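Protein modeling request. Please complete all fields; requests missing the sequence field cannot be processed.
Requester role: graduate student
Desired output: 3D structure, token encoding
Chains: 1
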Amino acid sequence: MSSYTEINELAANLLQEGDLDSLKELAKENGIPDDYVEMYLEEAIPSLCDSTSAAIGKIDVECMKLKPKELMLDWVEYIKGLCMENEMIAHQIRKKGKTLQGCMAVLLEYSFKNQITVDKTIIKAAGVSAGKVTFGVPGMAKAKELIRDYYMGGTKA
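Delivered output (157 residues):
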């Protein structure tokens, strides 16, 4: 589903029909936590999700499939943080064609295109015997910029 409003419309219809199993499956497929479902069923919240929870849910579902590790997990956290800071980014994450895989590809592409030579004294201190070492991973600020550009439509994977 490409928006949190679509999820909420379907959830409302399923609730009205009394199809709680399908409603729970809808939540699971979209990464909406079980406690949100329970609160929704108890009418403690007016809708199953909002823009932010729907975006983070999508990221969580995609993350389960991609199984990112180490620095890539940091990038995932940057994405989630940007969702919480900016509702427009959260909204854009749900759009069709925007994926965690695509965003990671942009970050990885940047990493390869922007490699710099590591100083020989650092290489020696690390105990690396290679004659030349290059490194190109973006810092936090650049990674966040690339993530924003990807989800807001500027960068394509």
